[in-house]
């Protein structure tokens, strides 16, 4: 499975470089999220720009990230989620759990704005 991880201060950016997020790669992604979602991480940005579709196992991986980060009161921002993924989140009534941004830069800007408001 192809992905990259970048750290900008206390923000982690996870970029999935696959077209599908499904039962084939979700277990490995979940394992990565368990490693990444630590108390010192202030936000997790998940870049889904390359992902065209997801199944319920992929959705489960995203939910695991949310649950782990929620324990530390830190946001998970989904970047570049396709219409199909957004539709899956809406149908599952889970779209409200995540913040959304069109680009990684947009997500970082959101976080800067939130920090400025605090």
Would you mind describing this structure in some detail?
The chain is α/β, with parallel strands linked by helices and about 120 residues long. The protein has a single domain (about 5-115), classed as Transcription Regulator spoIIAA (2-Layer Sandwich), CATH 3.30.750. About 40% of the residues lie in helices and about 25% in strands. The strands form 2 sheets. It has a 5-stranded mixed β-sheet with strand order 1-2-4-6-7. The chain has a two-stranded parallel sheet with strand order 3-5. Helix 1 runs parallel beside helix 2 (about 55-70). The longest helix has 15 residues, at about 55-70.
Structural topology:
Elements lengths: L2 E6 L2 E6 L3 E2 L4 H11 L6 E5 L5 E2 L1 H15 L5 E4 L3 H9 L7 E3 L2 H14 L1
Parallel strand pairs: 2-4, 3-5, 4-6, 6-7
Antiparallel strand pairs: 1-2
